[in-house]
Design brief:
heterodimer; A: alpha/beta; Rossmann fold; 6-stranded mixed β-sheet; two-stranded antiparallel ribbon; 16 helices; flat; B: mainly alpha; 3-stranded mixed β-sheet; 57% helix; globular
């Protein structure tokens, strides 16, 4: 006789602890793999998990094992077709034969280890200890919607919200405490009375009992009226309270200079930067819209493909992009409903005098409604050295420096290599205080 | 005709492919009837558990055990299996069975009713019988105590993590896992210790510590290493030497008892790893027999159910489809070939023994005079299941007919020759050679390197000497060797040297392998 047990409802994720230990162990490699994988992602494509492949450096499990080279060995194989004892078979050439073997006969060979990270794990590692700037502050500031939440029990409210269990419990307790006569008790007396009254030949005792029963019944009924079955003081209601819900949507503006001076390298760097910002937002907000605005001497909203890959020529007027952004915000993204983020990438050149106009627009129109505005200037390595100091720089950089003084949620950075991006990104969001100082 | 059909469908245990618990019970009872009254199997009480795919993956990654302590390597395994499964590279096993009493079999909820029947016959009766009766399992494992012990191990290690930090525990476990294969007493049976006694001992130790705790001890000045060496360890190490029996093949045991640097909880962790290794030791040596036994049993029982009209033709076809893919053996030049399939070889051998008993040829009579034509295949098989392991089983029972059926040939690979040589094939001159070579390839002592502790200089510089005896001049894999030695050093705390000895070759100059990790 076998004993059957249904285990399907047992708690899942028994090996979650092991998984966390594993990810912690391989953290360095996983982080590197994620960095590499970013290249192939679209800015908005962060929905799925990530299948990654990491080198087995830190997750090796060495055992003593026999080498697959050297020595004498004899083995049996199935499926002989034409061999007879004494046949000689040429060994495969060293290089070719060996590599195949390495992969197959040792589970922990030199191969990379492949597995899938869940989306959450992917993002967790990606963002490790970053925090979204000003999030707490702004959500409090921008409360626009409320939802009702349970908030315990009250003594008054609408009849639809009566809490029956509580009400009946109170009622029962009160009835017990005040000794309300039960229906059963009353019925017993009434029955007795009925029997006596129906009886033709009553003896003395019974004849005396009848009025006594009448009296008793009257008393009990009176008492039942004084102590009602349900009293208004028993009644309880479920209470609900309006709870503010923070705006859970954000719009991200990607502004980029696409004039001739921005080459492939610059665009690639800018793309990575936008991608990182998007990843970050999507983790915090239910819904994230992305608006791509490209500009030369004149700006337009475009789709992602055009934004990054379609060539355009012309001069460079940065303020046109800001104008376009203000227009789109006005039309589609009211700051009451949307958290507004902007990321701007440029090589730092703009028409003479235009920088002042940009600063004015930022100060008056954009910064007051934005959660965060990040500006990166993409330079080449030589320029990085020349502009080593923060104060030196082209016109736009110096002008933006003034904005930065005033707005703590405005950040500027210079980058020249892919390797700069991640640290820059961390700084942008991590160190509000550092940016201000 | 119609009456015959209705009669047989009355007897059918199930008709469509959906399973439920009532049906499982009915089928399991029918299987039990054949297993006990026909085959005469002897099993532990069965506990059959239905699990989901995710739970199956969980079980995969902890050696199939229902509970296991936490370690990242299990997480790695899980991530691997999960990816393989989700991307469709690998299916899941239909079942996992645990050598415990009661014998726990996990069935996957996605199986059809036919598959559940097959799996119950395979695991709950086939494997179960083997676990209970094979001498290796009887001698090396405690089926009654394993679950309690795992429970103890899991709690103990969790407690250590809490007390000493995850990293410290991980450190010990990593090193212990590296020498897990060398944590087995191969030649003597370790003393039995029930989990209760263990826990009791543990509890007493802690209670003693608490009772004799005196805060004053903390205020004693700490003596430095050298002093301690001079005053205490010399007499101590003499005593230890007396206990030391060298050479010692169980490296974990040696470190657990003799390492100069380990704390008591670290020794206990080594013990846990060693006990687990011991528990899995018989399974490594009986893959062919264990699977052969289970496959033979399920095949016999399912065919018998069909004979009795208890399962329908559709189910029988489904069963045969699945059965043939399990016992499929690709030939050596097939891209799917990855060694000899233990299910195929095991099942073929069991069937062959049955054939020899019932219907022996002249050849069989010459090769197997004891059993040929004796008719009692049940008794012969049960005797084989109880008293052999893969190596001896193949050596004893592999018949010339099977070697011809599999078209076995043996290949000699000498590293100095440019060619492989076919040393024997399935013919009159070659049978014995092929059989011996095949049997030896299941000999664990040839698959795993023979490494022993040969010296430990406790009184002097505390150098630990390990020795690898090369067989057939096959050296150790160099990179993993150095890494494992580093792990042993981690547990020993002092220098560790691994010497390689080759019985066939004169001692080479490079006796001592370079172990850069020492020079940290």
């Amino acid at each position: 006789m076998s004993h059957f047990i249904d285990r399907r409802l047992n708690p899942k994720g028994k090996s979650l602890g092991n998984r966390q230990r594993f990810i912690r162990r391989a953290r360095t490699e996983i982080r590197e793999a994620i960095q590499k994988s970013l290249k192939d992602r679209k800015v908005t494509d962060t929905s799925g998990g990530e299948k990654i492949s990491i080198p087995t450096r830190s997750t090796k499990e060495p055992r003593f094992r026999l080498s697959n080279q050297g020595g004498h060995r004899e083995r049996v194989f199935p499926g002989n077709k034409e061999y007879v004892a004494g046949d000689q078979i040429r060994k495969p050439r060293q290089g070719a034969g060996q590599s195949g073997k390495k992969a197959s006969d040792s589970g922990e060979g030199e191969d990379d280890f492949q597995f899938t990270l869940t989306r959450d794990e992917f993002l967790d590692i990606f963002f490790e200890d970053l925090e979204l700037p000003n999030l707490v502050k702004t959500t409090l500031k921008e409360i626009t919607n409320f939802s009702m939440r349970r908030a315990g029990i009250t003594t008054d409210g609408a009849p639809t919200n009566i809490n029956l269990v509580r009400t009946m419990r109170n009622s029962y307790g009160r009835r017990l405490a005040l000794k309300r006569p039960s229906t059963k008790e009353l019925n017993a007396l009434k029955e007795r009375l009925f029997v006596l009254e129906a009886k033709a030949d009553k003896n003395d005792e019974e004849r005396a009992e009848v009025p006594r029963l009448h009296k008793q019944i009257d008393e009990l009924e009176a008492k039942r009226r004084w102590i009602p079955y349900i009293d208004p003081i028993d009644v309880r209601f479920n209470a609900f309270e309006p709870q503010p819900i923070p705006t859970a949507q954000a719009v991200m503006f990607c502004l980029m200079d696409v004039s001739g001076s921005m080459g492939e390298r610059e665009k690639d760097l800018a793309k990575r930067f936008f991608l990182l910002l998007h990843l970050f937002l999507i983790r915090r907000y239910d819904k994230v819209d992305v608006v791509f605005i490209r500009h030369t001497h004149d700006a337009q909203e475009v789709d992602e493909e055009t934004f990054f890959y379609s060539p355009q020529s012309g001069g460079t007027i940065v303020s046109t992009a800001l104008e376009e952004m203000i227009r789109i915000v006005g039309e589609r993204y009211s700051s009451a409903d949307w958290n507004i983020y902007a990321a701007q990438a440029s090589d730092g050149y703009t028409q003479t005098g235009d920088a002042e106009r940009c600063v004015r627009m930022l100060q008056n129109d954009i910064m007051p409604i934005s959660q965060y505005y990040a500006y990166i200037e993409i330079l080449d390595d030589r320029e990085m050295e020349v502009f080593a100091h923060d104060d030196s720089g082209a016109e736009l950089w110096r002008a933006y420096g003034r904005v930065r003084q005033e707005w703590s949620n405005f950040a500027t950075k210079r980058i020249s290599q892919p390797s700069h991006i991640f640290p820059v990104f961390r700084e942008l969001f991590n160190k509000q205080t550092a940016i201000q100082s | 005709m119609t009456s015959a059909v209705s009669k047989s469908s009355d007897k059918l245990l199930f008709e469509d492919s959906e399973w439920d618990f009532d049906r499982l019970r009915i089928v399991s009872d029918a299987i039990e009837d054949i297993a006990f009254n026909d085959l005469g199997l002897d099993v532990y009480p069965n506990q059959i558990e239905i699990i989901s795919t995710e739970q199956m993956l969980d079980a995969y990654s902890s050696h199939g055990m229902p509970l296991m302590y936490h370690h990242w390597s299990f997480g790695k395994l899980f991530a691997h299996h999960e990816t393989m499964y989700k991307h469709g590279y690998a299916g899941l096993a239909y079942e996992i069975v645990i050598n415990s009493s009661p014998c726990i079999s996990y069935l996957l909820e996605e199986n059809t009713m036919t598959m559940q029947a097959l799996v119950i016959a395979h695991a709950a009766y086939g494997h179960n019988h083997f676990f209970k009766n094979n001498y290796l399992f009887k001698q090396w494992t405690n089926a009654e105590a394993i679950l309690d012990y795992l429970n103890f191990a899991k709690k103990y290690i969790a407690q250590c993590e809490e007390e000493y930090g995850t990293e410290a525990v991980e450190n010990v476990l990593d090193s212990a896992h590296a020498i897990m294969d060398h944590g087995v007493f191969r030649y003597r049976r370790p003393p039995r210790l029930s989990a209760d006694a263990l826990i009791e001992r543990q509890r007493k130790r802690i209670a003693y510590d608490q009772a004799t705790f005196n805060d004053l001890w903390r205020t004693l000045p700490v003596r430095d290493e050298d002093q301690r060496d001079d005053e205490e360890d010399v007499p101590d190490s003499d005593a230890a030497h007396a206990h030391m029996t060298l050479p010692e093949e169980n490296i974990i045991y040696f470190l657990e008892k003799q390492s100069p640097v380990l704390a008591p909880w670290q020794r206990e962790i080594l013990r846990i790893v060693r006990n687990l290794s011991q528990y899995f030791y018989p399974q490594k040596q009986t893959k062919v027999m264990n699977e052969g036994c289970a496959t033979f049993v399920h095949h016999y029982i399912m065919s018998e159910l069909f004979q009795r009209g208890q399962i329908a033709e559709g189910s029988m076809l489904e069963f045969l489809h699945s059965h043939t893919s399990v016992v499929f053996q690709p030939t050596f030049d097939d891209p799917r070939y990855s060694g000899i399939n233990p299910y195929a070889l095991g099942f073929a051998m069991m069937e062959d023994i049955k054939r020899i008993c019932e219907d022996a040829t002249d050849e069989d009579k010459e090769w197997f005079p004891d059993i040929a034509g004796c008719g009692d295949w049940r008794g012969v098989l049960k005797d084989a299941w109880a008293n052999y392991r893969d190596e001896s089983f193949i050596q004893q029972f592999l018949s010339p007919k099977l070697m011809r059926d599999f078209r076995f040939f043996s290949l000699l690979d000498k590293s100095e020759d440019p060619n492989y040589m076919v040393s024997a094939i399935h013919n009159e001159q070659g049978y014995r050679n092929v059989r011996t070579v095949l049997a030896e390839s299941y000999e664990l002592s040839r698959l795993e390197p023979n490494i022993q502790v040969t010296g430990a200089d406790l009184a002097g510089d505390r150098k630990l000497t390990l020795q690898h005896m090369r067989q057939d001049s096959i050296p150790l894999h160099a990179e993993s060797r150095d890494q494992v030695v580093t792990h042993i050093r981690n547990l020993w705390g002092h220098e560790v040297v691994l010497e390689e000895h080759d019985e066939n070759a004169p001692p080479e100059e490079e006796e001592e392998p370079k172990i850069p990790a020492f020079l940290q």
